[in-house]
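User: Some background: our group keeps a shared notebook of sequences we're curious about, and every so often someone picks one and asks for a predicted structure to add to the entry. Today it's my turn. The entry only has the sequence so far, pasted here. Could you supply the structure so I can complete it?
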Amino acid sequence: MSQRRSRAKTIDEYIAGFPEDVGEKLQALRAVIQKAAPDARETIRYGIPAFVLQGDLVHFGAFGDHIDFYPVPSGVDGFSAELANYRQGKSSARFPLDRPLPLKLVTGIVSARVAQNLDRALARYKFGR
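Assistant: Of course. Here's the predicted structure to add to the notebook entry:
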C-alpha cells in the first residue's frame, strides 16, 4: 500500500491513490453503498474506507488484484449462496478486479446491515443499554 493511501483522511483521497481502473471500481462500490445507506457517514477506519450508521456498517479496500468488502460483523450471513463464487473470510468477501463487481449483491448486503444496525440501536434504546 502506498504512503498516500495509508494516510488518506477521506474516501476521495483513498480512491485517488489508485490507478484509474481500480478507482472506478472503488467509486462504483462507494456509490452503491451510499444509495443503499443514504444516512450512513463516510470515514476511514483501519486505513480503508468505511461507512458508519449506528456503529460500523461496511468497510472496503483494494489490495493487489482484488477488492475486499467487509460487511462486519455479520453481513455475509444469509448471503452464502450468492457469495459462493467469491473467496470469503469470516466477515468478508473478495471481489477480483478482473471481474465485474456484484453491485446488486452488495446492495442487498448493505441493506441487511442497515437493518441489523438500526434494529440493534432500537433495542438498546428500548432497554436502556
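Suggested note for the entry: The chain has one domain: 3-124. The mean pLDDT is 89.
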